[in-house]
Amino acid sequence: MSLPLTPPVVPPAAEPAPVAVQPEVVAMPALSALPKPAKPMPGAVAENTLRVHVKLLDSLMTLAGELVLTRNQLLRAVASGDTPAIEVTAQRVDLITSELQEAIMSTRMQPLGNVFHKFQRVVRDLAKELGKEITLVIEGEEVELDKAVIEAIGDPLMHLVRNGIDHGIERPAARQQAGKPMQATLTLSARHEAGQVIIEVTDDGAGIDQRKIKDKALTMGLCDRVHLEAMSDKELVRLIFLPGFSMAKQVTDISGRGVGLDVVHTNLTKLGGTIDIESQVGRRSTFRIKLPLTLAIIPCLLVAVGDERYALPQVNLVELIRVPAAQVAHRLEAIGSALVMRHRGSLLPIVHLGEILGLSPQTAGQPCAAAVNILVVAAGDLHYGLMVDALLDSEEIVVKPLGQHLQGCKSYAGATILGDGRVALILDVVGIRTMMHLAEVKDTSGAEKHRAVQQNQTREDSQSLLLVRNAPDEQFAIPLSLISRIEKIPAHAIETSGGRRYMQYRGGTLRLLALEEVAHVTPRAEAETLSVIVFATGGREIGLMVSSIIDVLEAEVVFDDMTFRQPGILGSAIIMGHTTLLVDLFGLVATALPDWVMRPERAVTQLGTQPTVLIVEDSHFFLHHIKSFVEEAGYHVLTAMDGLEALQVLEQHGETINLVLTDIEMPNLDGLGLTARLRNDPRFALLPIIAVTSVSGEAAEKRGLEAGINEYLIKLDQDKILASMAQHLMCDCIA
Asked: What is the mean pLDDT of residues 542-560?
């Protein structure tokens, strides 16, 4: 008798999980020495593992296959000596390499939500322990950062959150007495901005009292009274980052443990990041952290000092200045043993890179006799100038860590290998600032203030302009503040599809425009190379093709808005002895690519009524231009030519005016004076005021915000102006 066979039980197939990839163990490249990771506990999962989705691995395999095929094509073209084929294949290799680089870097990216959500329990437990009512708001948790950066920022964020809960946020009774909601709000937010990730820790607590910081610094002997009295409010607040500084009155498990915020500052600096503070006493405090997306590959500007080449991370670069030999004696001055430059109404500390590195015999504090190249860099909240011999090129570099024998050099953050095989050291702007003991320079002579008062009565706004040529006999000017990048490309890199021209750009395509497509100007002359001005509008980047770059200058220019005004051209001026047409970048796009323009919804639709905006501007040219696009967006516009006239308009129509757009430099009463008067008038204390000016820079913006201006914008950037107006009016309407 045979028994029936029972079929074996087959378990259901498990759903495929993301593949855990263990990369080759290498020294992690960083902008500066990264903190050594703790040794994993026995049996724990190794720290150098990543969970990668199979789709991403498939993409990497596809790109690797394309790279092999293109390599074979390149080898055949080289063997046959076919130069055109070599050029085309080289472009293909460049494109595939960029895509492969982006795909590989994405394997290391992790969302910040992995860090942010850990704080929900921390905030809840600390609030309960301290008897406070706190709501945690998380924004931007989908923003991604390199795994190494994610792992390193956990402790600094924890320190900031603990300090905000303990020191910043008041107890419910104190908040109620101050007219605030009993429940406080602590916000953790993240966003992308200019190739970096911005993380903000904000609380609506008591803010940071500069007087208490000053008293504590005196008590601890960190600064003498003379230096403290000379410090601005922002400089006083940054004293909390000094080693050993603490405002805690007693030692607790939460704060006051002898470990101040200097640890936060140090750890973020090691990651190539910066931290800044904005605080309003009795209202709120914001700690703003800027971090690079990754520590492995970064865009840099290559510079030369003598025969040596160095790389400066572009995240630290603010602007480039070339001072002609004839202006060196006027622009550069010696104050004691320090060299400074007058730049946009403030004094900028200048150091020669060769002197720092011991490569130049130039005497410290002595201006140069020839033309000089100055890199304006940002080291935290301080801007200073690095003088170099030559500017070479910009490129993306692979960061390598420094050897043990160079670990103590504060001026270097790493090294890289260039295309010719030579090694270039990466400059550490924060380390150079520390090594040279650089600080904000104040003009105590009163000469600058006297000069400003005199010039304010007669001067036009100073404009930073890029001068270009399209045809050999026509000169154009483009506002420098609106330009993202300048690319120099061979003519054969321009491709045409569907009647539209474009170029391969950063792993994608960049739509190209020419001035002659919109404006009645002489067409661009054909040449082997051309320059592409990259700018952003409507959330997209577009390239403007021009024949050549002439110069970058800052000048007080009077524009004529009648003679040459047309689509794509705002007006004209005489610059360097030539009639120069001012390019309207937004007008070019609106005419040539109307579908690309993000038209703002009419304010009448959003708010249910037509808002009234007061525009205060002493230049007829800019007043006409700003008024045109503001009215086109649906606003009712009133105008004034200076601060005194604006006060008269506000007296007559004050109840109907919803927002003020004001210039800064004006005769009779400037924008800062107008703002101060409005903030002292109870009727206008909460009126949104946006500065729309040509005077850019952190120092100018700082003065504006201290005066009570809500936001500081460049007057020709109409996209940002309209977006900011809508935001402030909607917030005012909701409030």
From this structure: 84
State how far the Cα of 520 lies from the Cα of 517, in Å rounded to an integer: 8
Which of 370, 391, 392, 548 shows the shortest CA–CA distance to 476? Answer: 548
Structure tokens at 635: 């606003």
Q: Are 714 and 465 contacting, i.e. CB atoms less than 8 angstroms apart?
A: no
Largest CA distance in the chain: 118
Record the tokens describing residue 668, joined without a space: 């009779």
332 class by beta-carbon count within 10 Å (0-12 exposed, 13-18 middle, 19+ buried) = buried
Q: Write down the CATH number for the domain with range 297-440.
A: 2.30.30.40
Hey, what amino acid is at 437? H
Band (544; pLDDT cuts 50, 70, 90)? very high
What phi and psi, each to the nearest 5 degrees, are found at residue 249?
-85, -25
Continuous segment of H or E residues that includes residue 467 = strand 462-469
Of 567, 565, 524, nearest to 547 by C-alpha is: 524
Torsion of CA 543, 545, 550, 554, to 10 degrees: -30
CATH topology for 603-734 is Rossmann fold (3.40.50)
Instruction: Enumerate the domain spans of the chain.
Output: 50-107, 111-292, 297-440, 462-596, 603-734
- The answer, yes or no, to whether residue 43 has pLDDT greater than 60, is no
- Asked if 503 and 512 count as a contact pair (C-beta separation under 8 A), the reply is yes
Q: Which residues contact 646 (CB under 8 A, 6 or more apart)?
A: 614, 616, 640, 660, 662, 669, 674
d(CA 276, CA 288): 5
* Residues 52/48/150/541 CA torsion (nearest 10 deg): -50
Whether 190 and 140 have beta carbons less than 8 Å apart is answered as yes
CATH 3.30.565.10 for domain 111-292: yes
Q: Which residue has the tokens 């009993």?
A: 182
Nearest to 199 by CA among 95, 289, 125: 289
Instruction: Give how far the C-alpha of residue 682 lies from the chain's centroid of Cα atoms, to the nearest Å.
Output: 35
CB 214 within 8 A of CB 192: no
Q: In this predicted model, what pLDDT tens digit does every residue of 366-395 receive, in sequence order?
A: 556 678 889 998 886 678 999 999 888 888
Residue 597's CB: how many other CB atoms inside 10 A? 16
- The per-residue pLDDT for range 64-77, each reduced to its tens digit, is 999 999 999 999 99
> What are the helix (H) ranges across 437-541?
447-456
Instruction: Give residue-wise pLDDT tens across range 697-732.
Output: 556 677 777 788 988 888 778 888 888 888 888 765
Pairing mode, if any, of strands 540-546 and 508-514?
parallel
Termini Cα distance of the chain: 89
**pLDDT class for 202, splitting at 50, 70, 90?**
very high
Q: 180 near 292, Cβ under 8 Å?
A: no
- Cβ 707 vs Cβ 696: under 8 Å: no
Give the Å distances, CA to CA, from 468 to 441, 462, 511, 512: 34, 19, 20, 16
Q: How many CB atoms neighbour CB 560 within 10 A?
A: 15
Tell which residue, 566, 578, 582, has the closest CA to residue 619. Answer: 582
**Rounded CA separation 633/333 (Å):** 46
Q: Which CATH class is domain 462-596?
A: mainly beta
Which helix (H) or strand (E) is 385 found in, with range?
strand 382-388
Buried b (16+ CB within 10 A) or exposed e, 268-306: bbbbbbbbebbbeeeebbbbebbbbbbbbbbbbbbbbbe
Amino acid identity of 552?
Answer: V
Query: CA-to-CA distance for 480 and 494, rounded, in angstroms?
Result: 24
- 479-505 mean pLDDT: 86
Supply the angle between the helices 718-734 and 620-632 in degrees, to the nearest 10: 60
Among 429, 451, 443, which residue's Cα sits nearest to residue 340?
443
